[in-house]
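Batch manifest, entry 17 of 40.
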Amino acid sequence: MLRYVLSVLMLIMALQCQAQHADHLRISEKNQRTWLKKTASLLKKMTPDTCSRVSEIKRYDFGDSKKVAFRIVEYGLIKLENGDWVYILTHSSHEDETVGDISMAISSDKKLYVNYGHVCGGIINFQAYDIQSLSSSEEFFRLCKSDTDGISWEPYKKR
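Output type: structure tokens
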């Protein structure tokens, strides 16, 4: 009986947590476009020396599997092996649910990318499996996905 009650409570808590972040009906395309446009403008002005927050690359080796991971808290710079860099700004639906969860990034070659993975309180983690390092920004955007929902990066296209 206790096991049943605990199972039901855990199910209810999981559904409440998911419901908090799954309400895409409140997202306004206009507000989201406005945020993306403003953020793209900010990112285009960014250079690596203007960022004081460099995100640490974490490497994991599980024997039969390897992983690299990055934690971004509101914004951060990722420096890659070949000298490329990626600068990321995040927006959490907790700030404004009409904008939703978005991460926007610019690469050292000034290409813009967007990721719609879950950002919680300005924090998002990106990860790539079966590798021990990332050698370029192109590899970062091709291989890294948000850790909570596995969403990939996509090139930014003005809507």
